[in-house]
Fold this sequence. Notes:
With 231 residues, the chain is of the alpha/beta class.
Amino acid sequence: MDAAAGLREPWVVAIDGEAATGKSSLGVLLAQSLGAAFLDTGAMYRDATALGLERGVDLGDAAALVALVQRERAAHVWERVGPMWTLDEAFDQRLRRPEVAERVAVVAKHAELRGLMVAWQRAVGARRSRLVSEGRDQGRVVFPGALAKLYLIADLDDQVQRRAAQMRDAGHSVDVAQLRRALAERNEIDRNNALQMGDGAVPIDTRGREPADVLAHMQRVVLEAAAKRDT
């Protein structure tokens, strides 16, 4: 987008929404179109889950899990920039394992871990002049002063279909019924915890829409927010 070249820096675009609403795939495309870095905060929680499983740490033990994540990931660079817009394929496959998808809801509930992740996410925002950050509580908690706040909406059928495709693409077999239960549980946890639409957030319904159409909608929201800010 030529118009993106005129966006006054620094800025953050925050994308929130439940699991498997298209935040990552659309967020990458938005970041590319705006010449921004991209941060997949959901991957941070999936990685914490995978680390706990791999190291034999009780996922219900918040203190042990935080200590593990700090030890293993304190120096990790989570944001992606062109041409490395997405996670390394092997790393992503590891995060898409069914056992990770089933347990990440437990990990994401820990306030201590969320505090650590929020601090790391804000550090990314401080070192990047242009950032598209997606996940949960991005616009309300992590980046309340974001240039634009987008909130993606899908129904459970959409979520299951999208996440199952991601897992199959990563080479994993999918128990659709089990996946549906896991996503429904994650939705319930999200609604009772961090996932809320922040002040000024724009809801974007992705149901039945082509990705290109949703992306164009997201781009318009960002440019309109920039125009409003700069007047």
